[in-house]
């Protein structure tokens, strides 16, 4: 039996307009279309610059690109694709227009854009979260931390895969989702979408909370701990956007006019998609600006809590040696400070032939800033000093 749809002024439509509403099929009303364009024009370039900064830092200032960068690239591509598809639909007066003010063929085009775009956006969500979690694996060898990260990776991967598959195959046959006259049925997705929105918020909170104990336990000045926590804290902005979208979701799911009522939530989709990339690229910002503006950011020795190398006395060597000894004493009991660019610690194990005591040779190399005539701030006047000593312990 063929599925029938109502007609209005001789035009077949998905639904009838409310009484008293004057329908204009040729000049449909739209809301918040300008907001979508402005957010894309403002935030998309920032997201691109953040991504390029991340790649530059990884390639030229670090160990090169790794798997977390690959997932962030996939996240950026899906974020751009999501926004381009939605803007294309807006330009055709589909998104952000009244459902009852579209001919049925146009409404089916709107449904097709929704069918394609929503899963791509969920892929963006999953790729960027996986990128951040894979980055977490590189910052601490602690067993509990790595196990928690791997569990989070499994949760994000499975939930993203389930949601994407549900969006593509929630109707039987799948084309029923955008070909309204096709016979078949679709699962009522309301409760499922609410549950997935809540799970997204939970995983966002996990991503924010997970590194805090590890950062707090680092042996570094409080100001650096605060700065590191701020990097992860800024990433938690996406929690707020997820909450806003969750608050708007029930209205959309119950609406007989989803193309219109879903428009405010779509605005936050644009914001969130770009924030995924911007926040996900922030961990490399300090190294990037330290390379770009070394005097403003300070030397690595200063940022690591060492005294000014230009100051007299052997404090550099003693403090460096103290850090190494502390690492030997507390190995596996506390977190080691992140390696600094201006210091090099080499540990070499050896055992004497007949001695009953264990020995470890420690070489500490520090940079002593000698004053260069004519340039009190020159980094080229640094003199490397190497101190070697042997630790004996039972």
From TrEMBL:
Provide the transmembrane region boundaries: 33-52, 73-90, 110-137, 149-170, 190-214, 226-247, 267-285
Q: Where in the cell is it found?
A: Membrane
Which InterPro entries would you find in this protein's record?
Rhodopsin_dom_fungi (IPR049326), SAT4-like (IPR052337)
Task: Specify residue ranges for compositional bias: Basic and acidic residues.
Answer: 348-357
UniProt entry tagged with the keyword Transmembrane: yes
Query: Keywords, A to Z?
Result: Membrane, Transmembrane, Transmembrane helix
Coiled-coil stretches noted in the UniProt entry, renumbered to this chain: none
Which stretches of sequence are listed as region Disordered?
Answer: 300-322, 337-394
Q: Where is the composition biased (Polar residues)?
A: 313-322, 361-373, 385-394
Pfam families registered for this protein in UniProt = Fung_rhodopsin
GO CC terms in record: membrane
Query: Which part of the chain is the Rhodopsin domain?
Result: 54-290
The way this protein sits in the membrane is described as: Multi-pass membrane protein
Family affiliation: Belongs to the SAT4 family.
Q: What is this protein called?
A: Rhodopsin domain-containing protein
Source species, please? Clonostachys byssicola
């Amino acid at each position: 039996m063929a599925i029938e749809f109502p007609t209005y002024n001789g035009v077949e439509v998905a639904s009838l307009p409310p009484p008293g509403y004057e329908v204009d099929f040729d000049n449909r009303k739209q809301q918040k279309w300008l907001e979508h364009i402005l957010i894309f024009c403002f935030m998309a370039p920032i997201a691109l610059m953040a991504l390029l900064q991340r790649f530059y830092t990884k390639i030229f200032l670090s160990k090169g690109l790794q798997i977390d960068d690959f997932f962030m690239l996939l996240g950026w591509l899906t974020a751009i694709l999501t926004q381009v598809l939605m803007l294309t639909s807006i330009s055709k007066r589909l998104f952000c227009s009244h459902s009852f003010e579209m001919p049925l063929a146009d409404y089916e085009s709107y449904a097709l854009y929704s069918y394609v775009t929503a899963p791509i956006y969920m892929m963006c969500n999953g790729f960027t979260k996986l990128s951040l979690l894979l980055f977490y694996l590189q910052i601490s060898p602690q067993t509990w931390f790595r196990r928690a990260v791997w569990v989070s990776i499994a949760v994000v991967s499975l939930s993203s895969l389930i949601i994407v598959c549900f969006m593509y195959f929630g109707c039987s046959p799948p084309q029923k989702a955008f070909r309204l006259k096709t016979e078949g049925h679709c699962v009522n997705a309301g409760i499922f979408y609410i549950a997935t929105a809540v799970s997204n918020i939970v995983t966002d909170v996990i991503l924010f909370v997970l590194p805090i104990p590890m950062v707090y336990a680092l042996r570094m000045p409080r100001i650096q701990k605060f700065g590191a926590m701020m990097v992860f804290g800024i990433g938690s902005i996406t929690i707020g956007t997820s909450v806003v979208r969750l608050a708007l979701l029930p209205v959309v799911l119950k609406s007989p006019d989803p193309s219109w009522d879903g428009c405010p939530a779509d605005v936050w989709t644009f914001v969130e998609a770009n924030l995924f990339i911007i926040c996900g690229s922030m961990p490399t910002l300090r190294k990037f600006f330290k390379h770009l503006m070394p005097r403003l950011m300070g030397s690595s020795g200063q940022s690591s809590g060492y005294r000014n190398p230009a100051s007299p006395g052997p404090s550099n060597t003693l403090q460096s040696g103290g850090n190494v000894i502390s690492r030997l004493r507390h190995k596996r009991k506390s977190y080691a400070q992140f390696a600094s660019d201006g210091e090099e610690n080499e540990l070499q194990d050896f055992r004497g032939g007949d001695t009953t005591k264990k020995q470890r040779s420690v070489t500490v190399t520090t940079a002593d800033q000698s004053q260069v005539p004519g340039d009190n701030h020159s980094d080229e006047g640094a003199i490397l000093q190497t101190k070697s000593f042997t630790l004996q312990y039972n």
